[in-house]
Amino acid sequence: MNMTRRHFLVLLPAAALAWENILAGAPETATNYHTSEHWWGMLVDIEKCIGCGSCVRACQKENNVPDGYYRTWIERYRIKEVNGVETLEVDSPDGGMNGFPSSNEPGVKEFFVPKMCNHCADSPCTQVCPVGATFVTPDGVVLVDEKYCLGCRYCIQACPYGCRFLHPQKNVAQKCTLCYHRITQGLTTACCENCPTGARQLADLKNPKDPIHEFLRTHSVQVLKPHLATGAKLFYNGLDGAVR
Amino acid sequence: MKLKDAAHLFRLAGVFAAGILIFILVRSYLVPKSFGQYGHFRGDALTEIKAQPISYAGHQACEACHSDVLDLKSKGKHAQVNCEACHGPLAKHADDPGGVTPEKLDTAKLCVRCHEANSAKPKKFPQVASMEHSGGLACNECHTPHSPAIVTEGGKK
Q: Where are the alpha helices (DSSP H) in A107-147?
């Protein structure tokens, strides 16, 4: 009995310290950006994409993406009929960053599909992380905490869209951040900024004035792999059924 | 007498209390301070990601100083093409225009990135087979980059 009381007295200050630590959550840093007022996504208009690679180059430069890895890339789809069977060719030389050679093949359906992280609301990649280093922010962006990432690659495998890679030097998973450092300052993403035709548009789904709402209402817009129910927020207009 | 019988229980309770305290202490030491600030992750990660420097200043940044170019461009066919899509990342120049001078552009390379004819491009996008069209001449020999359309006598262009 005496022993426990002494123990108790010894531990009391320590307990007080611990309690203080628990209570002291850092207050939200004062900016005029509030995570709860936004819900980010992106609109990609296939009919406008000219495959110039501006978005890919801009992303590489803005985010120091290592050579040979891509946070966004462009695929060219070529659909043709050989003996009555529809065949599909997809290519993406250097992620499409330097454009595409013309094929000039008659009778082929061709188009470009820019791809990147879908910033899924119910993302499979965040669910598999063993250390909670990847997460969906309250404003709907999927990010990686590079300090806590172990480089185990679970998330890279879990992403159904192939949007993640392991940084060869840092050994952490990396992916599109939706230019979080830009959009929180009122700028658009680097890829949208550099898209000459407006084929890519950043969209804030919580902002009632965002033109995305009107667009979604008047166009038939799809996401990739809807059957996976990932809550993807990369909306494609004019998406061909062949695109995976 | 009764208390003495229960002494082992108090000792046990003491061990439990100590165990719980140690757990709380270790936990508060290991769990990052900002954990749970926004959700089930380290809140400071957002601050760190936000701190990344910007390379592309954005169209609005250029407007302030280059209003002459803007006026010309906004009337031409390149109105919706942003400055940095051609001039490259210029946030450093926008911060310090005297210290950082943008590179000169080679239009023979620049323009064909977007305008080289390609069967996969949307048909309504203006495209040319550059070798036939200019024969290797730099595009700004004939076109003004900021307002590129050329009005020919017959057509409306």
A: 124-128
Q: Domains for chain A: give ranges and CATH numbers.
A: 8-238 (3.30.70.20)
Q: Is residue B134 part of a domain?
A: yes
- Any domain includes B121: yes
- Contact criterion met (CB < 8 Å) for A112 and B53: no
Gap from A83 CA to chain B (nearest CA, Å): 22
Q: Report the C-alpha gap between B67 and B63 in whole angstroms.
A: 5
Contact between residue A63 and residue B49 where contact means Cβ atoms under 8 Å apart: no
Q: What's the pLDDT score for residue B33?
A: 87
Q: Which residues in chain B touch residue A145, judged by CB atoms under 8 angstroms apart? A: 41-42, 45
Domain count, chain B: 1
Measure the CA–CA gap between A154 and A94, rounded to whole angstroms: 25
Nearest CA in chain A to B27: A18
**ipTM value of the model?**
0.83
In a domain, B114, yes or no: yes
pLDDT digit string, tens, across residues A7-47: 655 555 555 554 554 444 444 444 689 999 999 999 999 99
Alpha-carbon separation of residue B11 from A6, A7, B2, B114 (angstroms): 12, 11, 15, 79
Identify any residues that bridge with B131 across adjacent strands, giving them in sequence order.
none
CB contact under 8 A, B59 and A193: yes
By residue count, chain A amounts to 244
Identify how many contiguous H helices and E strands chain B contains and give both numbers.
8, 0
Could you list the residue range(s) of the whole structural domain that residue B133 is in?
Answer: 104-157
Contact A143 B46 (CB under 8 A): yes
For A39-89, the pLDDT digits (tens) are 999 999 999 999 999 999 999 999 999 999 999 999 999 999 888 888 999
The pLDDT of residue A6 is 58
